[in-house]
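Sequence in, structure out. Go.
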Amino acid sequence: MPTQTILLISLAAIAALTLSLAFYFLKQKNKRPKHWILFSALRFVTLFSVFLLLINPQFKNETFTIEKPSLVIAVDNSSSIYDFEKAAEVKTFVDHLKNNKEITDRFSVETYSFGEKFRRNDSLSFSESQTNINNAFTNLRQLYNHKTAPTLLITDGNQTYGQDYSFQAKQYKQDLYPVVVGDTTNYIDLKIDRLNVNRYAFLNNKFPVEVFVNYNGKNAVQQTFEIKEGNKTLFSKQISLNAEKSSAIINATLPADQVGIKTYSAIITPIAEEKNKVNNTKNFAVEVIDEKTNVLLLTDMLHPDLGSLKKAIEHNQQRKAEIKQVTEGDIDFGNYQLVVLYQPDVNFKQAYEQIQKLGINTLTITGTQTDYQFLNTAQPYFKKEITGQKEEYLAAFNSSYEDFQQENIGFEGFPPLNDVFGEISFSTKYNTLLYQNIDGYPTVDPLLATVDENGKRSGFLFGENSWRWRAKSFLDNESFESYDEFMGKLIQYLASNKRKVRLSLTYDSFYNSGEKILIQAHYFDRNYEFDPRAKLSAKITNKETDKAQSFPFLLKNNYYELDLSNLKAGNYTFSVAVEGEQLAKKGTFTIVDFDVEKQFMNSNFAKLNQLSGHKATFLNQENKLVNELLKNENYKPIQKSQIKISPLIDWVYLLVIIVISLSIEWFLRKYQGLT
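Output:
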C-alpha cells in the first residue's frame, strides 16, 4: 500500500478521534464518564468509517504466469492420404509430436484437421472427400493473427476445390513448416485434368463439352480420346502429346435428342506403363430439358441494375433474359413468361396495355427516376405517396414469408436501395419478403413484396441499386451463388402460374459422388401454413439393382431435409410421402462415379516447398523438425504479470458499519435520556 495512503488513514484516525472527543467533552453538558467513553467510541467508529469511505484505500496484488507459444499442427484429413497408404504414418507422426516432452514443455500443442471443412480435432479418419487448403489458412489467420504460433502443415499439397492456397499462405504471419505426405516421384501419367460442360441442355439442340488432357512423360505418345454414352461412342479423336506439348484441349458437341438425365464418360486410353489409371476416365451428366423461361427486362434508361439482373437470372441455364428499351416498337410480349418493368414512366403506357391484355406476370422495380404519378394509375395493386424527397432503404428479412421458400442470405447487411420517400398503400392482399428499414428503424412498409391475384403474379421491389446487393454477396461469400439463387427463386415464382401445392421438393438431378446429396421438402397444412409436426419419409430405389431403402426427413428450421450422401454411384428413383396424408412426390437423380481425391498420384512437393522460408520436410524427418523448432530462439515462453487492485475494505461493509454505529449511538442516547 502506498505511503501516502497510510498517512491519510493515520490522519483520518486522528481526526475522527479528535472530533468525537470534542463533541462529548466540549458540547455535552451532562457528562457521565461511564457514558461518554462509550458514545465517543461509537462516534469515532462512525467518523473513521466515513473518512475511510472517502479515502478508499487500495492495495495491489501482482501475479505472474508463463504463456507458452502455440505449436499448430494442421493435418490433411482427406481420403487421398489414405489412398497414398500414409494414414498410419501421419497418425504416428502427430502422436509423437504431441507426446514429445521437450515439445510440450516448450509449446502449447494445438491440433486441427482440414478437408471439406476446417475443425479443431484430435481424431483423424482420412475419409473426407474434398480438400480445401485455402480454407484452412483462412481460419488459421483468424485464430493466430496476434500471437506466436509456428505451424506444421501436414498434407500432400493437392487441393480439390477452393481458391489457390498460395496467396493465403503468404498472408499467414506465422512460421510455416510444410510436412509432405505421399510419393514425390514423377511417374508417366496421362489424365483428364478438367472437364467443362453445362448442367442443362435443351431438347433438339447440341451442347458443348470442353476437356483438358495433361501428359507427364518424356516419350511421345498418341492415344485415343472418346466420349461415350453407355457402350455407344458419340465422339472420338486421336491426340498426340510429348514432353514439349504436354497438354491438349478437346472441344466436342453432343446431341440433346431426348429429355432426361444423360450420363456420359470421357475416356483417354491409358498408357501401358501408367501407375494411376483412375484419372483416365471422367464421368459427367447433362439434364436435357424441353422448356426455357424467357424474361424481358424493359427499361427507359441505362443502369447497372439491368446487367446485374440479367446475370443473376441467367445463372440458371433454363432462363434467358433480354434487355430492351421500352421505346422499341417491335417487342413481342407473347415470347416472354415474365416482364421486369424497370423504373416505369409514361413511356411504359403501351407496354402496360399489352401486358394486361396478355395476362403476363411482372416484376416492377422502382427508383428515384420512377414516375409515381403514372405508376399509381397504370397498375391496380398499390399507390405511393408522392413527396419528391429521396430516401435510402435498408432491408429487413421477414422469416414468415410464405409464397416461396427463402433463407436470410444476409439481407440486413446489404447496402441501402434508393427510392422516393413516401407511404405505400396496397389495395389488395400482398406478402412481404423484405421490409423497409430507414436509418436503423424497421417499418411495416414493404421493400420487396409479391401479389398473387386471379391467377396472375406480380412482384414489387421499391428501390434501385440492387446491383450492390449482388456485389456485397460476392464479398461476403466469394461467390454470387447465394444472391443469384435468391433472385432465381423470385423469378421462378413470378414466372409460374401454377397453383400453390402443399408438398414441394428441392433437389438436383445429378450429383458427383463425394458431394453432399440433399433433398429438401416443404410441407404445408390445409391452410397453406408450414407444418413442423409432420413426418416425411422417402423411399429410394436403385434402378440397376432394384434395391429400395426408406429414410426419414429431419426438420431444419422451416423445411425438411434428407441427407443421402452415403449412397453409391448409380441411377435412383424416389418417392416422398407424408404420414397420414394422401400426398406424395416422385423424382429421379443420378450419382456420377467420380472421386476427385483419386485423381492425384503423387504429392505437390514443389508448391509446398515454396510456401515459406522453411524447406518442406517429410514424415521420416521428425527429429530434424523437432530440433529446428527447439533451437529457434523466437519460440520462447513469455512471462506475463497481472496487477489486481482491490479495496482495503469494501464500501458496502463500511456503509453497514456506519449505519450500525449510528443506530447503536442513537438508541443508547435515547435510553439514557440524553439529547
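Check: The longest strand covers residues 441-453. The chain has 15 helices and 36 strands.
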